[in-house]
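CO-FOLDING WORKSHEET

Operator: S.A.
Ligand of interest: calcium ion
Run index: 166
Mode: holo prediction, single chain
Checklist:
[x] sequence pasted
[x] SMILES validated
[ ] output reviewed
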Amino acid sequence: MNAKTMCSISVLTVALTLGAIPGWAQVPPQSGVDGGHNGASQAIVSTNLQELTFTSTTIPDTDSLWACVATCSVQAGFPGGVDVDGRLVLAHEGGVVVGTERKFELNDNRGIEDPEVIEVSTTGMVNNFGAGTHRLSCRAAKTEAPDPNFTIQRSSITVSCSDHHL
Ligand SMILES: [Ca+2]
Ligand SMILES: [Ca+2]
Ligand SMILES: [Ca+2]
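OUTPUT RECEIVED:
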């Protein structure tokens, strides 16, 4: 085995070794799912957003940025009397994820058998998640302070994340 062959084998060995180290090789897209739920009835009593359910999503250290899509689904209960206007949002940490506010109305029309509950959902995407834990939550509030309180009777959040942003 001459010197040139030895050198080629060494280069190949180094290349194969580096290829086995995460970050050096081209890794396939990675993904994961997460979620949370709350079956307790929660009174919504103010125009300040109140957390309904959440999940702490931990992004692994992949030397890449991840994007997460999340959906909130809740059942809102009507207290009766007059119409009530509420809003539901998806939040990241304490901030509303842009584009996710959904307003809804609970209404009692005289002489009409109205629904006692309505289902409301919202969905959105958050980009540029680095490694670490991120709190994603569903939050609700009244839109008008004088309106009667209402309840969120149950809620769920589902999260899907990937480091492959299309
Ligand atoms: Ca109204
Ligand atoms: Ca009615
Ligand atoms: Ca009814």
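REVIEW:
The longest strand covers residues 117-129.
Residues 113-116 surround calcium ion (ligand 3) (CB under 6 Å).
[x] output reviewed
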